[in-house]
Amino acid sequence: MESVLVEATPFAKNCGSRQVLDRIGDRWSVLVVLILADGVKRYGEIARRIEGISQKMLTQTLRGLERDGLVTRTVHPEVPPRVEYALTGLGRTVVDLVAALEEWATGHLGEVEAARARYDAAVSGRGGSRPAP
Questions:
Q1: Any idea what DSSP says for residue 64?
Q2: Over the stretch 27-57, which tens digit does the pLDDT of each residue have?
Q3: 58 and 27 in contact (C-beta within 8 Å)?
Q4: For the CA atoms of 83, 87, 90, 91, what is the dihedral angle to 10 degrees?
């Protein structure tokens, strides 16, 4: 498929690149991409790996990733039908990006939790108002 040169400005309200960022940055999409980075998976395998995702949200996420060309859905004509999901070539180009996000989040979790605790303590000490800068 030929790529089309489009001027992207994600800060513009109606730019499609904002929708792409929303898709890639969505918490469920990040997790699905990380799971599919290991190879082809069935729906149930993905659902079991992501604690807390509803069937509706997983279905919507997979459809959105498929629509954006990041995931393929293959239905095998068996009884019962076997459906598999895999990253496309385009989908594989975002694996390093989301893997870096995962690495950052897990590597800095302690610092983030400490910052949250400081913030929450400061807010509760001020009667719920935000702490001074």
A1: H
A2: 899 999 999 999 999 999 999 999 999 999 9
A3: no
A4: 120
What 3-state DSSP class applies to 59? helix
Q: Does position 24 have pLDDT exceeding 90, yes or no? A: no
Reported residue count of the chain is 133
Q: What is the DSSP letter of 10?
A: T
- State the Cα–Cα distance between residues 120 and 92, nearest whole angstrom: 39
Predicted pLDDT at 75: 94
CB 70 within 8 A of CB 88: yes
- Residue 88 gets which letter from DSSP? -
DSSP-assigned beta bridge partners for residue 56: none
What contacts 99, CB < 8 A, 6 or more positions away?
34, 37
Question: 27-36 and 95-107 are packed helices; what angle lies between their axes, rounded to 10 degrees?
Answer: 110
CA distance 42 to 67: 18
